[in-house]
Structures are given as C-alpha cells and as structure tokens.
C-alpha cells in the first residue's frame, strides 16, 4: 500500500505542477484529495493491514495529503498572479485620453416653483401641512360644503374608487383635516402643496394629474384685507415688485365671499392666477370652529399655472414629457 501511495504522490505532483488554469487545479484537488478522491480510495484498504503497518501507512498518507495541499496552495497563488498580470496587460488605461464630461442635473422646474412658493409662505409664518392623495368623499367634498346634490361637484369630475373613496381633486381636503386635528385651537396658518387628480382630457392647459398649493388662515379678526395683503406679497415675490393684481367676484362652495386673483402682464393683459375667499361659516363649523368667534381665509392655485406664467410656457404637457431639450433650459434655476 505504501508503494501505491508513493505512486499516487508522484502522479498528483506532476499534474498539479503542470496545471495551466485555476479550474483545472480545482478539479485536481477534488480528484486526489476529495471525499471520493484517489487518496481516500487507497486508504479504504487499510482494514486489511496488520496492526504494525497501519501507523506507518497512516503517517505516510498524512504526509502526502499535506504535501499535495501545500503544492495546490502555491500553484493557486502562482496562477492568480498570472491571471492578474494578464488582466493588467490587456486592460491598460491610456491616461492621455480625454475624460468623459459629467452631466450635471438640475431640479425640475415644477419642483423649483414648489420649493420657492413654500419658502415665500414659510417666510410669512405659514406651516406646511400634508394629507392623503387617496381621500374620502367626506374630506374632499362634504367638509368643504359640497353637498351630495351640489352642482359644484360637476366642476370637478373625479376618479372614484368606490362611492366614498376617490383620488383627491384638490389639496383643500387637507384643510378640514388640519382644523379637526387642532380641536378648535388658533391660529391655523398652513399651506397644503401636493398632487391632485381630475378626469380632464389632457391638452395644452389641462391635465388629469397636476399639482396644487392651497393656503388657510383661521383666527380671530381675520379679514379680506389680510387675504389681499398675503396674496399681494406672494405674487410680488414670485413675479416681481412691480406686479399689479386685481380681485374679481367669483364663487366657490367653501368660501364666501369668493374672488379670482388676476395679475397684469404688459403684453397679454390681465391673467387669472388663483382663487381665494373668506372661509365659509359652514366649513368652520363642520371643523370645530364657531364662525361667530373666528374667521378665516383660503386660497389655492396650480403649481403648473404659476410655472407657466413665470416662465412663459404655453403647454402644460412640457412638464411631463421628460424632454431634455426643455428641461435643460432650467439648469440655472
């Protein structure tokens, strides 16, 4: 058996030394040293040896195993170094080649307008409030004085999930949620930016999904003149100190009286920009505020509307087409 072990050693050493790649080396390790390898096969015959021969054969087998493992380890290191040197030779980097230009991104124009509007209102003491985009009919309509049979509901063709759940049609739904959470405490001074959804046909001025920012103030002695002052400050910070505004009578179910706000463009004349008004007494009452003690005002506008007026954009779809030619115009914004 010792003779067979020595012969196995010579054969294994020869093949290991002549291996040219790591895969072959792994196969040789399994072939000679694995659980079903040749060394193990030879040692299975130790049962037929005499008690005097077994220690000698066992010692020789361990010596051969250690020798082959050491040889395989050295050969592995050698082959890995050769592989690395080959990769370095084949993947030489030419440091004289010019580098690739880095593309610098920019904030999306709608996000930029959103953040600018938030900064303006936060500077006037407003807080940012948020609410769910999947809303209940209660908060989207009923708490805002849209009764079930109210014709004003037809103004906002909605995406209903079931008779009581829909995608919100305005961020005004955040207003009653906030007032109820405050449990009658004042002041309430919030803005509510976010996405809204209506079943509009997409064209240059309409989209089934767009963004709004709404504002709400509730306190003692809040007046229409304060509403005008807040909106004039916002518009002049957004469009310039010389921007003129006018208020026109309008109608919204959740405000009374209601107004439309226009800004004056020297080239295009008066342009509608947002709607506003004094919070309807029913809305205050439903949200836990006594309308005989508290008054408030609310306003709302589309973020796309502001961006289109500020940048002179004539088609709302440009914001959502991901056209880099359009978006690159705002890299400095």
Automatic annotation (TrEMBL):
Catalytically driven reaction(s): tRNA(Phe) + L-phenylalanine + ATP = L-phenylalanyl-tRNA(Phe) + AMP + diphosphate + H(+)
Cofactor: record remark: Binds 2 magnesium ions per tetramer.
Residues the record lists as binding Mg(2+): 256
SUPFAM superfamilies tied to this protein: Class II aaRS and biotin synthetases, tRNA-binding arm
All copies of domain Aminoacyl-transfer RNA synthetases class-II family profile, residue ranges: 111-329
GO BP annotations listed: phenylalanyl-tRNA aminoacylation
Cofactors, names only: Mg(2+)
Cellular component, GO, one term: cytoplasm
Keywords, ordered alphabetically: Aminoacyl-tRNA synthetase, ATP-binding, Cytoplasm, Ligase, Magnesium, Metal-binding, Nucleotide-binding, Protein biosynthesis
Entry-linked Gene3D superfamilies: Bira Bifunctional Protein, Domain 2 (3.30.930.10)
Known EC number: 6.1.1.20
Highest taxon of source: Bacteria
Record GO terms (molecular function): ATP binding; catalytic activity, acting on a protein; magnesium ion binding; phenylalanine-tRNA ligase activity; transferase activity; tRNA binding
Compartments in which it is found: Cytoplasm
Main subcellular location of this protein, as a coarse class: cytoplasm
Listed InterPro entries: aa-tRNA-synth_II (IPR006195), aa-tRNA-synth_II/BPL/LPL (IPR045864), Phe-tRNA-synth_IIc_asu (IPR004529), Phe-tRNA_ligase_II_N (IPR004188), Phe_tRNA_ligase_alpha1_bac (IPR022911), Phenylalanyl-tRNA_Synthase (IPR002319), tRNA-bd_arm (IPR010978)
Subunit structure: Tetramer of two alpha and two beta subunits.
PANTHER family listed in its UniProt record: PHENYLALANINE--TRNA LIGASE, MITOCHONDRIAL, PHENYLALANYL-TRNA SYNTHETASE
Family per record: Belongs to the class-II aminoacyl-tRNA synthetase family. Phe-tRNA synthetase alpha subunit type 1 subfamily.
NCBIfam families for this protein: pheS
Protein name: Phenylalanine--tRNA ligase alpha subunit
Gene name of this polypeptide: pheS
């Amino acid at each position: 058996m010792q003779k067979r072990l020595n012969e196995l050693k010579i054969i294994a050493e020869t093949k290991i030394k002549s291996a040219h790649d790591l895969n072959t080396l792994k196969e040789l390790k399994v072939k000679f040293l694995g659980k079903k390898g040749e060394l193990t096969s030879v040692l299975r015959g130790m049962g037929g040896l005499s008690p005097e021969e077994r220690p000698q054969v066992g010692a020789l087998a361990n010596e051969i195993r250690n020798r082959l493992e050491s040889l395989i380890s050295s050969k592995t290191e050698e082959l890995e170094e050769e592989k690395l040197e080959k990769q370095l030779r084949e993947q030489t980097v030419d440091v004289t080649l010019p580098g690739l230009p880095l593309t610098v991104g920019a904030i999306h124009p709608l996000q930029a307008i959103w953040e600018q509007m938030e900064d303006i209102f936060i500077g006037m003491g407003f807080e940012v409030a948020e609410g769910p985009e999947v809303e209940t009919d209660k908060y989207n309509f009923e708490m805002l004085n849209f009764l079930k049979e109210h014709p004003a509901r037809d103004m906002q063709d909605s995406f209903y999930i079931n008779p009581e759940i829909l995608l919100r049609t305005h961020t005004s739904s955040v207003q009653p949620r906030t007032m109820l959470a405050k449990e009658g405490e004042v002041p309430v001074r919030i803005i509510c930016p976010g996405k809204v959804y209506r079943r509009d046909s997409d064209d240059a001025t309409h989209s089934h999904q767009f963004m709004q920012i709404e504002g709400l103030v509730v306190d003692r002695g809040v007046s229409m003149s304060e509403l005008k002052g807040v909106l004039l400050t916002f518009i002049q910070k957004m469009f310039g100190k010389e921007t003129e505004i006018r208020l026109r009578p309008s109608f919204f179910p959740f405000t009374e009286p209601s107004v439309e706000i226009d800004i004056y463009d020297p080239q295009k004349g008066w342009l509608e920009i947002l709607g506003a008004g004094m919070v309807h007494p029913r809305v205050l009452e439903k949200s836990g505020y006594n309308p005989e003690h508290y008054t408030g005002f609310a306003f709302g506008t589309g973020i796309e509307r502001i961006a289109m007026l500020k940048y002179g954009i004539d088609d709302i779809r440009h914001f959502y087409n991901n056209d880099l030619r359009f978006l690159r115009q705002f890299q400095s914004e």
